[in-house]
Amino acid sequence: MGKDHRLSRTATARENEAKRVKNLIGYFFDKMGKTRHKTSLFNVYTQATRKSAKPDMSYDADKIPVEYLKRELSASAIDSAIKEGRLYEKTAPLDKGKLFYIDGQGVEQRLAGVSYLGGETLVIR
C-alpha cells in the first residue's frame, strides 16, 4: 500500500466520522425537540427541505394515473399537478404525506403508492 492509498483511506474514514457525528447531533436535536444551538465554535440548526413525491411501500404503477408516470414515478408531474390544484393534501393527521385527486366520475381518490413529505436537514456552520 502506497502513501496515497493510505491517505485516501484516512480521508474517507474522517468523512465517515463527520457523518456519524452529524447524525448523532441530529438524533439528539430530535429527541430534545431543539431546532437551533449556538456555540463559540459553530452553530447548528435544522432547515426544512423541499417536499418531493416518492414511491412508498404500497407503490403499484397500475393504480397511478398515467399522467403522473414516466418509466418511474414523475415527481415533477406530481409537483405541477399540486401547483395546478389537480392533486392536493389534506390536513388530517391520518392523511399526512398522502395525496388525493378527483377522478373522472367526481369521486375523491388517494394517489396510492406515493408519499409526499418534506424533511429537514441539519446544518453545521
- Can you write the helix and strand succession as a string? HEEEHEEEE
- What separation lies between the terminal Cα atoms? 35 Å
Poorly predicted residue ranges:
none
Average pLDDT level: 87
Helix content: 25-40%
Radius of gyration: 21 Å
Largest sheet: 3 strands, antiparallel
Could you state the oligomeric state of the chains shown?
A: single chain
Q: How many extended strands?
A: 7
- Total of domains: 2
Shape: elongated
Protein topology:
Elements: H1 3-32, E1 36-38, E2 43-48, E3 52-55, H2 75-84, E4 100-102, E5 108-110, E6 114-117, E7 120-124
Antiparallel strand pairs: 1-2, 2-7, 3-6, 4-5
Please give a handful of descriptors for the protein shown.
7 strands, 2 domains, 32% helix, 125 residues, 3-stranded antiparallel β-sheet, alpha+beta
Short characterization:
With 125 residues, the chain is an alpha+beta fold. The protein contains two helices and seven strands; from the N terminus they run H-E-E-E-H-E-E-E-E. It folds into two domains: 3-34; 52-117, no CATH class.
